[in-house]
Amino acid sequence: MEVTMGTHSIRQADSFSSGVSTPRGHGEPSWRPAQAPSRRYVLMTAAYNEETTIEQTILSVVSQTLLPSRWIIASDGSFDNTDMIVQNYANKHDFIRFLRITRSPGRSFNSKVLALRCAFELTNDLAFEFVGNIDADVSVNSSYFEDLITRFSINPELGLAAGFIFEKKGQAYQEIASNRVHSVAHAAQLVRRECYQAIGGYAVLEFGGEDWHAETSARMMGWTAEAFPDLPIFHHRPTGEAERLLTYKFRTGRMDYSLGSDPLFEALKCLGRILERPFIVGGMARWAGFAWSWICGDRRSVSEPFMAFLRKGQRERLRLLLAGRKVRVKA
């Protein structure tokens, strides 16, 4: 993998000092600020052949009421016009930095996270309190990131946060069925810097699921994670469209297995997905992916403590479901 910096230069942010509330049970942050909480944040984007959507993403970020201190857009092996579009906007906006990564063609969850890690290295000269990701096929309202930071200021134990995802159905955007308050979408999220450092950033996982891994790891360490229904994320490419839909469903089943999902919980979740596109066979394909990894004895991507913590939460939701309580099953 070859990494190349864009030609655009960025003006380094001024140094600052600020204070931050540390949740109970957490150590002092290594970058210890000293006074009022900061609202500074950095954004990262990994883009692979996103010429049809990335301009919408860029326009939504440059219109934010609270701009990021720096936004690193990593073109992850793109061979369409993605690079040209990003470089054009980087030339116009000091806070945007273009990063070119050369690798073998094809979509890869490993390479996406590696690209984000390369992007994060370009923030080492800055002081900030929040690390954000925004995918190259979404857009958000102009106050989105400022509103998220306000939620963090209200709750000092909030480690990860995002909005709810909406996709276009006909002439309007509608909330997707898998949205839930306790599952933080990676598409446009912020992570408190202390939390991000504590979990080691986004994990490199063969079948994806870095968002699920991050929020579970954060909760293991005592942070909370929350998605807010009143903060929409507009997804311009329907989920799974980048892959053939059945292949996507099969892969997500393997992802669930790799992260240690409980088999009974997984079976009920797949049953609950039978009315999602493609009807009936989609849920079957997801279960087939999970079962395939189970039968093959695939190695889990997570530690035993992680799997035990995840399954404990899933079994608690199953208990509530059997008790007649309304529970939305994790995607």
Describe the structure.
It is built from ten helices and ten strands. With 331 residues, it is an alpha/beta fold. The longest helix has 19 residues. It is globular and about 55 Å long. The two termini are 32 Å apart.
Keywords:
10-stranded mixed sheet; Spore Coat Polysaccharide Biosynthesis Protein SpsA, Chain A; 331 residues; 2 domains; alpha/beta
SSE topology sketch:
Elements: E1 2-5, E2 41-47, H1 54-62, E3 70-76, H2 82-92, E4 96-102, H3 109-121, E5 130-134, E6 138-140, H4 144-154, E7 158-169, E8 172-175, E9 188-192, H5 193-198, H6 210-220, E10 224-235, H7 245-258, H8 263-272, H9 281-296, H10 304-322
Parallel strand pairs: 2-3, 2-5, 3-4, 7-10
Antiparallel strand pairs: 1-4, 5-9, 6-10, 7-8, 7-9
Helix pairs in contact: 7-9, 8-9
- The name CATH uses for the topology of the largest domain is Spore Coat Polysaccharide Biosynthesis Protein SpsA, Chain A
**Residues in helices, as a percent range:** 25-40%
SSE order: EEHEHEHEEHEEEHHEHHHH
The whole-angstrom Rg is 20 Å
**Class of the largest domain, according to the CATH hierarchy?**
Alpha Beta
Q: In this structure, how is the largest beta sheet organized?
A: 10 strands, mixed
Question: Quick one: overall form?
Answer: globular
How many angstroms separate the termini?
32 Å
Q: List segments where confidence is low: pLDDT < 50 over at least 5 consecutive residues.
A: 7-36
Mean pLDDT level:
86
Assigned CATH architecture of the largest domain: Alpha-Beta Complex
Portion in strands: 15-25%
